[in-house]
Write a sequence for this structure.
């Protein structure tokens, strides 16, 4: 067991970090409150959603393109996530890793060509 | 240089790689095709299935030369044995037949996009991986590849509300059941600290009997798998999805993906859950009785033929599960043969329904088949053969599957179950013959003939011939299935 005088010195940076992280927003919010002009409006209290009117009838229509772009973003986001560890371990994986990655990219490019030709990327 | 995988690993996956390559090829060539020659996509897809079959054949003959019996690849994550080879053939055959019956149907629906064939090929790749996978992660990913493809195929008729509804229902319930299945898999991993099925088996064998954690894993895995194969009480999606999906997709999903889900079911219950057989046996008996009862009784009152065949598919799942209840060589052989035979007879019956789809008629009501005998005697007679086979009457092939399963029940002393199963065959005869009586005894309502495209003719010929050949000369198929059993029992 560890004695009573044990000081977990490795955790001191964490404590400092927590203190700063707590103080930072409090201080900034206080300073901002003192400095900024006050013009209360109801819209300011509503949720913010990428410039789209956040409240409308639930049966209303909305463009499906938004979701296509979102899905495409996810796909290419995942692509980069896969590329990163491969790039870091490039030397260890060698030629095999390169070919595997090219196959992976090739499949995504086929999808990209397909989406492009189908006109899913044409905005409006 | 790498110590992870060898080129041989990829060789084992050659059929899958070919299917995926051709699938992507179809997607790309579809962009170049004019509206009137979209059938070319089907040709490309068929060539892909052909190449995959040749690759499979080559692997199989090489295996025979080596005398290996089993090819392991990717550190045991992929295991190609006679079990997976047997199922791969079922998948390739059902995919080829689905492709040729889709052409005319999609033209009539004006939805003849190349993606239909591409997605069918992707689903087939997932199915083959599902039968060859020996690792929880491989199995889960390939299961998702298969079912997500089928969700899309189900909703392929964009302008048809029933198709949309079926796709959404299937997607929501399917995603939910996949979650339960993944939970069961995570429990297995938690128990055994391994994703390899064989290692899990040895770890589970060491657990004390009645271990609550094992029970939990069994129940969650069973619930997820029961959903995928469509067993009671997780069957509600099945008739709705069968009814709403495009006819060829219904034909496809009632055969290929069903066999694939059953391959997964068998693998999971025989390999990792094999040591705890005593714990899941009562569950399985109960579920199979409920499945047979509900499937057969609910089928009686259906007026839509796709729903009727959907409920009959549920009842067939009940019979198939009986093979696992008895769990001996005969039972497993019965399941394999049953699934092979089922592929032919069910695809045949659905091909007739696909032919009923005409310009102005959806053709999935039983009444739509009225007087088919006078309009197209061939289709009517073949339909009778398929229905007889589905009911399990000799000399058709359906008899063979039921014979082995009932025999295995008698061998293992499950006499009550055998009696119940045989009684339900009589019920099945009643509702199958309702279709026959409509076809033969009633006057035709309209003059329009079924749309017998060349593809449908070929599909009908092949399925009918195989239904009769397996029924009359079953020896080579029994031989093939025997080897399958050895692979699972090892």
């Amino acid at each position: 067991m560890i004695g009573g005088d044990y000081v977990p010195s490795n955790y001191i940076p964490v404590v400092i970090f927590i203190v700063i992280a707590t103080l930072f927003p409090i201080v900034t919010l206080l300073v901002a409150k003192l400095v900024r002009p006050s013009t209360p409006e109801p819209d300011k209290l509503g949720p913010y959603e990428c410039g789209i009117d956040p409240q409308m009838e639930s049966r209303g229509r909305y463009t499906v393109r938004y979701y296509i772009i979102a899905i495409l973003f996810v796909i290419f986001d995942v692509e980069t996530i896969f590329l990163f560890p491969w790039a870091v371990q490039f030397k260890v994986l060698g030629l095999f890793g390169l070919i595997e990655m090219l196959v992976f990219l090739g499949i995504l490019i086929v999808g990209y060509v397909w989406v492009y030709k189908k006109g899913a990327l044409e905005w409006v | 240089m790498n110590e992870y995988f060898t080129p041989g690993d990829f060789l084992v996956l050659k059929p899958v790689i070919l299917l995926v390559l051709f699938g992507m090829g179809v997607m790309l060539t579809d962009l170049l095709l004019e509206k009137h020659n979209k059938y070319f996509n089907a040709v490309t897809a068929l060539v892909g299935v052909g190449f995959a079959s040749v690759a499979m054949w080559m692997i199989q003959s090489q295996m025979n030369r080596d005398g290996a019996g089993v090819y392991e690849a990717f550190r045991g994550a992929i295991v190609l044995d006679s079990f997976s080879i047997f199922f791969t053939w079922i998948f390739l055959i059902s995919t080829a037949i689905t492709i040729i019956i889709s052409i005319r149907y999609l033209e009539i629906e004006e939805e003849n996009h190349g993606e239909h064939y591409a997605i069918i090929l992707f689903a087939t790749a997932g199915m083959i991986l599902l039968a060859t996978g020996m690792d929880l992660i491989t199995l889960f990913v390939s299961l998702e590849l298969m079912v997500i493809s089928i969700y899309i195929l189900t909703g392929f008729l964009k302008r048809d509300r029933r198709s949309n509804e079926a796709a959404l229902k299937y997607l929501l319930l399917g995603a939910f059941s996949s979650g339960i299945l993944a939970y069961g898999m995570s429990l297995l991993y938690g128990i055994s600290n391994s994703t390899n099925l064989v290692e899990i088996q040895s770890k589970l064998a060491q657990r004390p009997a009645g271990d609550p954690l094992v029970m939990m894993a069994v129940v969650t895995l069973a619930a997820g798998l029961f959903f995928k194969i469509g067993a009671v009480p997780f069957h509600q999606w099945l008739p709705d999805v069968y009814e709403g999906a495009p006819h060829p997709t219904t034909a496809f999903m009632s055969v290929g993906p069903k066999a694939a889900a059953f391959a997964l079911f068998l693998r999971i219950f025989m390999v990792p859950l094999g040591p705890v057989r005593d714990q899941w046996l009562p569950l399985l008996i109960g579920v199979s009785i409920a499945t047979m009862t509900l499937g057969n009784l609910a089928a009686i009152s259906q007026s839509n033929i796709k729903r009727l065949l959907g409920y009959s598919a549920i009842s067939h799942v009940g019979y198939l599960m009986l093979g696992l209840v008895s769990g001996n060589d005969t039972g497993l052989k019965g399941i394999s043969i049953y699934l092979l035979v089922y592929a032919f007879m069910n695809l045949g019956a659905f091909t007739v329904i696909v032919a009923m789809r005409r310009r102005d008629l959806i053709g999935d009501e039983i009444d739509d088949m009225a007087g088919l005998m006078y309009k197209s005697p061939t289709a009517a007679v073949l339909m009778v053969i398929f229905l007889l086979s589905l009911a399990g009457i000799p000399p058709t092939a359906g008899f063979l599957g039921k014979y082995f399963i009932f025999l295995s029940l008698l061998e293992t002393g499950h006499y009550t179950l055998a009696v119940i199963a045989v009684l339900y065959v009589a019920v099945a005869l009643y509702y199958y013959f309702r279709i026959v009586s409509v076809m033969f005894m009633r006057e035709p309502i309209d003059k329009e003939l079924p749309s017998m495209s060349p593809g449908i003719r070929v599909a009908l010929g092949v399925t009918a011939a195989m239904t009769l050949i397996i029924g009359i000369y079953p020896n080579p198929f029994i031989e093939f299935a025997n080897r399958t059993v050895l692979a699972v029992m090892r």
Q: What stands out?
A: The first strand of chain B starts at residue 71 and ends at 73. Chain B has a mean pLDDT of 91. Chain B has one domain: 7-489.
